[in-house]
Amino acid sequence: MPARAFSAVRLVNGSTGDPVLYLDYPGAHNALLFDAGDNAPLSLAELGDLEAVFITHHHIDHFIGLDRILRANMDKDKTLHLFGPVQTIRRVADRVRSYEHQFFPFQKLALAVHELGEGTRRTAVLECAKRFAEPEVVEQPWISRVCYSTEHLEVEAVSVDHTAPCLAFALAERSGFHPDPDKLAAGLLRPGEWVQEALRLLRADAPGQTRLDINGGSFTLESLAKQYFVESPGARIAYVTDTQWTDELRPKLVKLARGAWRLYCDSYYARKESKNAAQHKHMMAHQAAELARLAKVEQLVLVHFAPRYAGRYPMLVEEAAEVFPRVSAEISRGPRSE
User: Fold this and answer.
1) Is the Cβ–Cβ distance between 189 and 198 less than 8 Å?
2) 130 with 108, same domain?
3) 222 and 77 both lie in a single domain
4) pLDDT given at position 203
5) Nearest 5°: phi and psi at 148?
6) What is the pLDDT of residue 225?
7) CA angle 70, 75, 80 (to 5 degrees)
8) Is 36 in contact with 64 (CB distance < 8 Å)?
């Protein structure tokens, strides 16, 4: 299994609450958030660490947490990227400008909002320094699935079939050196900014005897590499919620999730609820398992259980396990999604 660069991956509300996935990277302010539903379990400091937010669609259980994200980042001097389906620019702009802002000089937050449609990407920047004036929208062709790219990773997006415009996402880390979360947790040095500096030097192929000063000590890059890092292809995570499982979508979703270390997948209904699943355009647990099997993922985590199954959630896991045995759910955490 490839090493993972992120130090934590957290299904914020478990499998029974609003689907929200938080990924944190050691020693850097570049956390990622998939969906903006109820994020009360995340601290403002954790939300203030965000670099990008990937919104599947604008139903309340996937979008209501935007307010806390704004609150946590309003005083930052940073660009926060927001990705979503069509109408994301207008909806974010309306939310931001629905408040009375004091506009202090130190508030330099810029919201780069990216709206992804079939073959088209529209981008607008809402700037606190410009009092969140109506932004200019730039439209360009969007052919590749990649919607976000850094030196460490790429995020892919595809359109899916729900009752509102909706996206599914996958994160793919680049091959090369990665911090080892287990080694960092067990090591004598606490994770900090040195992790990203060492990572930068390792990927630049710096000499092994290059020294870094960390917490009053001096360490060679070679020793840090052996103790805290690993070279690997990197991990892939797929995040699929609120969509039908149709013949048309199947190849697209299988390609998105192919070889993922972990697939977080919509499993709103049990097998006997096929009519409701078709009407409300959700997946059933056994369909999530079929996607996991076809995509040959390492692990499947079921998310977004319907409240009607309260007290019977293990039934959904059992239905999925009949198709794909490496399946789990986080049932004890988080409030129910209404």
Assistant:
1) no
2) yes
3) no
4) 84
5) -145, 135
6) 92
7) 50
8) yes
DSSP label at 18?
A: -
Give the range of the structural domain holding residue 70, as residue numbers without chain letter.
Answer: 8-174+235-328
Alpha-carbon Rg for the chain, nearest whole angstrom, is 21
Decide if pLDDT at 289 tops 50.
yes
Together in a domain, 131 and 12: yes
User: 53 is written with which tokens?
Assistant: 């937010």
Label residue 39 exposed, middle or buried (CB < 10 Å: 0-12, 13-18, 19+). Answer: buried
Query: Which CATH number does the domain housing residue 88 bear?
Result: 3.60.15.10
Per-residue model confidence (pLDDT) at position 25: 80
Across 70-152, the runs of DSSP E, i.e. the strands, are 79-84, 110-117, 120-127, 138-141, 146-149
d(CA 85, CA 80) in angstroms, rounded, equals 17
Q: Are 157 and 147 in contact (CB under 8 A)?
A: yes
Name the nearest CA neighbour of 219 among 183, 185, 242, 195: 195
In a shared domain, residues 163 and 192:
no
Q: Are residues 33 and 130 in the same domain?
A: yes
> In terms of domains, do 164 and 305 share one?
yes
DSSP per residue, 286-297:
HHHHHHHHHHT-
Tokens of 180: 């080892």
Yes or no: say if 53 and 81 are a contact pair by the CB < 8 Å rule.
yes
Domain assignment present for residue 139? The answer is yes
The pTM of the full predicted model, rounded to 2 decimals, is 0.88
337 in any annotated domain = no
Length of the chain: 338
Beta bridge partners of 138: 123
Mean pLDDT to the nearest integer, 12-20: 97
Whether residue 224 is found in the same domain as residue 240: no
Average of pLDDT values for 28-46? 94
Task: Flag whether 335 is in a domain.
Answer: no
Let me know whether 50 and 194 are in one domain. Answer: no
- Residues 264-283: pLDDT tens digits? 999 999 999 999 999 999 99
CA dist 178 and 195 (Å) reads: 10
Residue 230: strand pairing partners? 178
Cross-strand bridge partners of residue 159? 167
